[in-house]
C-alpha cells in the first residue's frame, strides 16, 4: 500500500510520534551500550525497522482521536508511537518465521545478525553456518520481544489517566495476542499435511493483521479522546478495513516487484503460505499444477503460478472480497459518526482509497 495522501494535520502528528520513538530508541541504546558495545548493532537494526515504513498505525490513532487543530496531549503522541513499535516488533519476528533476508531494501534484523556472527564474531568450523543462523534468529526474537514490551511501556508512561492507561494496555496486548494466534494459524495451515477451508484461512489472515493494525489503533484514538461510545463502530470499521488491507497485501507480495514491497518477490508463494489468494486457487481445477510447482521448490516456475492465479479467477475473487470490505467500511464511516470531524473522515477515506489502489495488480 502506498502512503495515503491524507490531511496534513494528521500526518504531521504521526511524524511527531515517530520522532518520539526515535528519542526513546536513543535513550535505550545509550543505556544498553554502556553495558556492552555489541548491543549497538541489533538496536540500530531494530530501530530502522520500527521507525521506518508508512506509520499507518500511528496515523490511525491520531485520526480516531480527532483532536482539533493545534497542540495535542503527549499521551496521543506516545500511544501512537506504541502502535508503530508494536508493528515493528511483529515485522522483526515475521521475518524470522518467513526466512526473509530483506525488509524495505535492507537486511532483516536476523540476517544482519547472522552476517555479523559469521564475519566478526569468530563463528567457523563444521557447524559455523548453523551456529550463525541460530545466533541471528535468537537476536531477532529478543529484539522483537523487546519492542513488544517497549510498546507496553510507552503506553504506561504516556500520561493518560490511570483508567485509560489500563484500557489501552489491555487493548494493545489483546490485539497482540490475536496477531500471534493468526501467525500460528498461518504457519500451521501451510503444513503439507493440513487441510483447511477458505473461511479458516480468511480468519487467520484477519487475525494476523487487522486487530493490531486497524481495530486497536482506531479504538485507542477514541479512548484517548474520551469517545468510548464510538469504539464499537470503530472496531467494526477497522475489521473490514484490516481484512481488505491484508488481502491487498497478499496480492502485492505475489505480483509486485521487490522495489515496491521491500521484500522477496517469491514471498508467500515460495513458502506455500495458505493465504486467501492461494486457497481460492486451490478450490479450482488448477490446484494439482500449483501444488506440484510449489512442492518442487523451483523459483523459475513461480511465474507460471502467478499466471494460474489469474486465469483460475482467484485474483478476481480476492479483489472482489477486498472491495466488499472497503465498501462496508465506507458505509460504517458514513452512518456511524464515529469520526466526528470532516478532517478525520477525509483522512480515513484517504486510507481506504490507498488500499483500493493497491488492489490493482
Report on this structure.
The protein is mostly helical. It has two domains: 7-159, Farnesyl Diphosphate Synthase, CATH 1.10.600.10; 162-361, Farnesyl Diphosphate Synthase (Orthogonal Bundle). It contains 16 helices and two strands. It has a two-stranded antiparallel sheet with strand order 1-2. It is globular, with a radius of gyration of 21 Å. The N and C termini lie close together (11 Å).
Offer a quick outline of the entry.
Helix content is 75%, strand content 1%.
- The number of domains is 2
> What is the CATH T-level topology of the largest domain?
Farnesyl Diphosphate Synthase
Q: What is the number of E strands?
A: 2
The CATH homology group name of the largest domain: Farnesyl Diphosphate Synthase
How large is the radius of gyration?
21 Å
Ranges where pLDDT stays below 50 over 5 or more residues in a row are: none
Can you name the CATH architecture of the largest domain? Orthogonal Bundle
The largest pleated sheet is described as:
2 strands, antiparallel
Helix and strand composition category: mainly alpha
In what range is the share of β-strand residues?
under 5%
Helix content: over 70%
Tally of alpha and pi helices: 16
CATH class descriptor name of the largest domain? Mainly Alpha
